[in-house]
Amino acid sequence: ITSYDLTQQTLAALKETDQKVNGFLALNEEKALATAKAIDEKGIDPDNILAGIPIAIKDNIMTKDLKTTAASKILENFVPVYDATVMQKLYDKDLVVVGKTNMDEFAMGGSTENSAFKTTKNPWNLTKVPGGSSGGSAAVVSAGMVPVALGSDTGGSIRQPASFTGIVGMKPTYGRVSRWGLIAFGSSLDEIGPMTRSVKDNAAVLNVIAGHDVHDGTTVDQPVPDFTAGIDQGVAGLKIGLPKEYLGEGVQAEVKDAILAAADKFRELGATVEEVSLPHSQYGVAAYYIISSSEASSNLQRFDGIRYGVRTQNAKNLDDVYVNSRTEGFGPEVKRRIMLGMYSLSAGYYDAYFKKAAQVRTLMKQDFENVFKDYDLIMGPVAPTTAYGIGEDVTDPLTMYAGDVLSVPVNMAGLPGLSLPAGFAKGLPIGMQLIGQPFAETTIYKAGYAFE
Ligand code: GLN
């Protein structure tokens, strides 16, 4: 099959399926077909297994000449003048971008219901959320519309939607993938990663997007291994820790059972699985929401109606431009986070909130370091529950935040975490999380591949 035919068939099929799922915010039809044609004319490199493969991109990743909204009204008309580093890397390897996917506004949320534009449905059950914030990317991969999508993960936004939709999602080590051109949320936590249907596909895409970038000073200047090499080596001799806090209160019985069954499977495959403890994980949600909102309140100052996006029609002076553009442009969850972040950074409250949260973050990091003295990997659920109903949690932000308890520690410590399918409950997928030491994505992929 030519790349052109593949792209054309992919677009035709996904347009049909997406009428039900609502995963895409925008399609990139003309350019995708032109790119595919150019790839065919140039000739497909037989060593490049990703040549001509269609990919979908979360709408907070900058795509030159293709609208990038972060699912916010304030960026409704925003067309970037440059590509994110990851995009350039995908183009260099001849992947074909078919469209931009729905998400929670500015990646704030866990269900994609905070999008200003549409509600994405879970392909397994159209009355359920696909998770979030990368819910559009998860849904379009899960429904078979594309084999690969990119997401971003600040506190679980790749792993939790992967878990809710039964796909594979990797949040790489902080510094592994360039954030240049990712619309910043919590800069010390954000990471871009691949969402796919299989572990090996995932590793192949990370091969493409990983690496040092002069435009992002937090990327690490370290050689990138081939993440697919030796992926089939198995887990014999591997030591895996299962934190008792990850199977505690609030974790749905079916989720717990699936993870215990997964632990048994790892034992059968020759690994050791033992109970460990991450004693500070109970403070993770509180500390995460202070740190991520503080960083967001600073990052989102640039959206003022002047430089990017939509400017209010309703202004008599400069102050009106700022205030009314932001009042009209941001949704309720984004405003809530900006207020929380500004408050915890303000002079009178900094010590009580931001500083405390930063200290808790250090303790959480040490928890992981202690376990990794004796173990190669940590396993557990990605989320306490399977996908919930559309409309069920969105009116109650604290319930929604509580669902992040098992995913945020990984971002707080900058570690790599993989979500992969580990069972079903009432027709809905259950996700397992494999957490590794910094830059140990290869170990995680090996274990994921052996389990799959
Ligand atoms: N659900 C979390 C939040 O709302 C995580 C979001 C993310 O990882 N982008 O902040």
UniProtKB/TrEMBL annotation:
<dbReference type="InterPro" id="IPR020556">
    <property type="entry name" value="Amidase_CS"/>
</dbReference>
<keyword id="KW-0547">Nucleotide-binding</keyword>
<comment type="subunit">
    <text>Heterotrimer of A, B and C subunits.</text>
</comment>
<keyword id="KW-0808">Transferase</keyword>
<dbReference type="InterPro" id="IPR000120">
    <property type="entry name" value="Amidase"/>
</dbReference>
<comment type="function">
    <text>Allows the formation of correctly charged Gln-tRNA(Gln) through the transamidation of misacylated Glu-tRNA(Gln) in organisms which lack glutaminyl-tRNA synthetase. The reaction takes place in the presence of glutamine and ATP through an activated gamma-phospho-Glu-tRNA(Gln).</text>
</comment>
<dbReference type="InterPro" id="IPR023631">
    <property type="entry name" value="Amidase_dom"/>
</dbReference>
<dbReference type="GO" id="GO:0006412">
    <property type="term" value="P:translation"/>
</dbReference>
<feature type="active site" description="Acyl-ester intermediate">
    <location>
        <position position="157"/>
    </location>
</feature>
<keyword id="KW-0648">Protein biosynthesis</keyword>
<dbReference type="GO" id="GO:0050567">
    <property type="term" value="F:glutaminyl-tRNA synthase (glutamine-hydrolyzing) activity"/>
</dbReference>
<protein>
    <recommendedName>
        <fullName>Glutamyl-tRNA(Gln) amidotransferase subunit A</fullName>
        <ecNumber>6.3.5.7</ecNumber>
    </recommendedName>
</protein>
<dbReference type="GO" id="GO:0005524">
    <property type="term" value="F:ATP binding"/>
</dbReference>
<feature type="active site" description="Charge relay system">
    <location>
        <position position="58"/>
    </location>
</feature>
<feature type="domain" description="Amidase">
    <location>
        <begin position="5"/>
        <end position="444"/>
    </location>
</feature>
<dbReference type="GO" id="GO:0016740">
    <property type="term" value="F:transferase activity"/>
</dbReference>
<feature type="active site" description="Charge relay system">
    <location>
        <position position="133"/>
    </location>
</feature>
<comment type="similarity">
    <text>Belongs to the amidase family. GatA subfamily.</text>
</comment>
<dbReference type="GO" id="GO:0030956">
    <property type="term" value="C:glutamyl-tRNA(Gln) amidotransferase complex"/>
</dbReference>
<keyword id="KW-0436">Ligase</keyword>
<dbReference type="InterPro" id="IPR004412">
    <property type="entry name" value="GatA"/>
</dbReference>
<dbReference type="InterPro" id="IPR036928">
    <property type="entry name" value="AS_sf"/>
</dbReference>
<dbReference type="Pfam" id="PF01425">
    <property type="entry name" value="Amidase"/>
</dbReference>
<keyword id="KW-0067">ATP-binding</keyword>
